[in-house]
Automatic annotation (TrEMBL):
<feature type="transmembrane region" description="Helical">
    <location>
        <begin position="114"/>
        <end position="131"/>
    </location>
</feature>
<feature type="transmembrane region" description="Helical">
    <location>
        <begin position="56"/>
        <end position="75"/>
    </location>
</feature>
<keyword id="KW-0812">Transmembrane</keyword>
<keyword id="KW-1003">Cell membrane</keyword>
<keyword id="KW-0472">Membrane</keyword>
<feature type="transmembrane region" description="Helical">
    <location>
        <begin position="7"/>
        <end position="24"/>
    </location>
</feature>
<keyword id="KW-1133">Transmembrane helix</keyword>
<comment type="similarity">
    <text>Belongs to the 4-toluene sulfonate uptake permease (TSUP) (TC 2.A.102) family.</text>
</comment>
<feature type="transmembrane region" description="Helical">
    <location>
        <begin position="151"/>
        <end position="173"/>
    </location>
</feature>
<feature type="transmembrane region" description="Helical">
    <location>
        <begin position="185"/>
        <end position="208"/>
    </location>
</feature>
<dbReference type="GO" id="GO:0005886">
    <property type="term" value="C:plasma membrane"/>
</dbReference>
<dbReference type="Pfam" id="PF01925">
    <property type="entry name" value="TauE"/>
</dbReference>
<feature type="transmembrane region" description="Helical">
    <location>
        <begin position="253"/>
        <end position="273"/>
    </location>
</feature>
<feature type="transmembrane region" description="Helical">
    <location>
        <begin position="220"/>
        <end position="241"/>
    </location>
</feature>
<feature type="transmembrane region" description="Helical">
    <location>
        <begin position="87"/>
        <end position="107"/>
    </location>
</feature>
<protein>
    <recommendedName>
        <fullName>Probable membrane transporter protein</fullName>
    </recommendedName>
</protein>
<dbReference type="InterPro" id="IPR002781">
    <property type="entry name" value="TM_pro_TauE-like"/>
</dbReference>
Amino acid sequence: MTGFADIVLMIIALAGAGAVAGLLAGLFGIGGGAILVPVFFQVFGLMGIDDAVRMHLSVGTSLAVIVPTSLRSFASHRARGAVDMDLLRSYVIAVPAGVVIAALVFASISSGGLRLVFAVLALLVGLKLLFGRDSWRLADDLPGRAGRFSAGIGIGFLSTLMGIGGGILNNTFMTLSGRPIHQAVATSAGVGVLISIPGVLGAIWAGWAAPGLPVMSTGYVNWIAVAIIIPVTLAVAPLGVRAAHRLDKRQLELGFGLFMLLVSARFMVSVLAG
């Protein structure tokens, strides 16, 4: 990418993605990575970045953006008293442990393998958003210490491989365990903090000295993309938090679910074609 018009289009695309990601961070308690990863994948492709590192770079950069977004979203939700701090404290070791395991996998998995992981999980998330019901329950309350620890490891592991903040998975875990959606959304913002900070460090470690990375990258994190998107997400995230406590989110869930299915299909086609 050398043309001025291409650079302008890249900045516009990244800023737009940042706005959507920030809104979703506050609205659904997610870090916005489900939006950012596919956008990064497309933009990095336009920049001519090697396919061997493009997906890894998308995931790592997404995790870097999620750090400030999750911190601000968590602070806003906690100020409203909506966060389940007991559950969050039970995640303090479990979630980062899952992130560390994911970083080890991240360092060795191929681009195609990483895209396949994202495609499968995006498909499951999309189906849950489209067909899930608030009335679905697996239990009347959250499990005990061992169950919460296991859930934390799984949430940290899968979220890191997808480059997301864990909100989608934690929302599902909490609502299926009888907790109200607003509490799940608020608590998930804190989960994003526990995932994104060690996740960024893992992405930097996994991609250290990897060939084919673009300028201003540290491992699998590109700081140019981070610098463009973070101010936008920080500005928009509080709007999503306010909306989360007022709106019926069913239509947004349907739209986001369809988006996830399209993203899943896009990555699946790229894997089969590659």
